[in-house]
From TrEMBL:
Gene3D superfamilies reported in the protein's UniProt record: Carbonic anhydrase
Family: Belongs to the beta-class carbonic anhydrase family.
Name this polypeptide is given: Carbonic anhydrase
Keyword ATP-binding in record: no
Origin superkingdom: Bacteria
Chain's role: Catalyzes the reversible hydration of carbon dioxide to form bicarbonate. Reversible hydration of carbon dioxide.
EC numbers for this chain: 4.2.1.1
Pfam family, one: Pro_CA
Keywords: Lyase, Zinc
UniProt-listed PANTHER family: CARBONIC ANHYDRASE, CARBONIC ANHYDRASE 1
Keyword Zinc: yes
GO MF: carbonate dehydratase activity
Length: 202
């Protein structure tokens, strides 16, 4: 906790003054253009990876970057998606998976999660991804395949939310699926149809 307090002091002393104009502007304006849905994993930092300034990304982070499909019973994730799309009018949504994801590893390796029942229940939102990951894949290859399949499955879930479906039908919204590699910093666009799918090469 002492590290956090020192960090706040450093922010106020060194960072805030350098961006004072930006923060003054943002005090009365919230106009992000992108909803970024990433994993809660501490190593996956949306603003760092995309080099976005405060105010530019609307962020939802969940374990395994899972997006429950629409149900009649709204939850915090559904509300945040609806707010970003219908109220803030974001034009792009990124679902970003990542290498060495603990959630995807637990599923790929069929780990015993009886000691973490909430996690086990939550990971059911990856059932479709798990179902299409080939059983022939093993070890790290299986985790990597599941990470990619999971991003695609969560994009499909995302499209079931009425606000997203409406914006997609108007051509006002684009969905992107990314996989971030922690060791190399590479970002792969898994929704791209061409072989040259590194985001930086697009
Ligand atoms: Zn993760």
């Amino acid at each position: 906790m002492r590290d956090l307090a020192a960090g706040v002091q450093r922010f106020q002393r060194d960072v805030f003054p350098a961006k004072a104009e930006l923060f003054a502007d943002l005090a009365n304006r919230h106009t992000p253009d992108t909803l970024f849905i990433g994993c809660s994993d501490a190593r996956v930092v949306p603003e760092l990876i995309t080099q976005r300034e405060p105010g530019e990304l609307f962020v939802i982070r969940t374990a395994g970057n899972l997006v429950p499909a629409h149900t009649p019973y709204a939850d915090g994730i559904a509300a945040s998606i609806e707010y970003a799309v219908a109220v803030l009018g974001v034009t792009d949504i990124v679902v970003c998976g990542h290498s060495a994801c603990g959630a995807m590893t637990a599923l790929a390796e069929r780990q015993d999660l009886t000691g973490a029942p909430a996690v086990a229940d939550w990971l059911r939102h990856a059932d479709a991804a798990l179902a299409r990951t080939p059983d022939s894949a093993t070890g790290g290859e299986r985790v990597a395949a599941l990470v990619r399949d999971n991003v695609l499955a969560q994009l499909a879930h995302l499209a079931t939310h009425p606000s997203v479906a409406r914006a997609l039908s108007r051509g006002a919204l684009t969905l992107h699926g990314w996989v971030y590699d922690i060791a190399t910093g590479a970002v792969e666009d898994v929704t791209a149809v061409t072989a040259a799918s590194a985001v930086t090469a697009a």
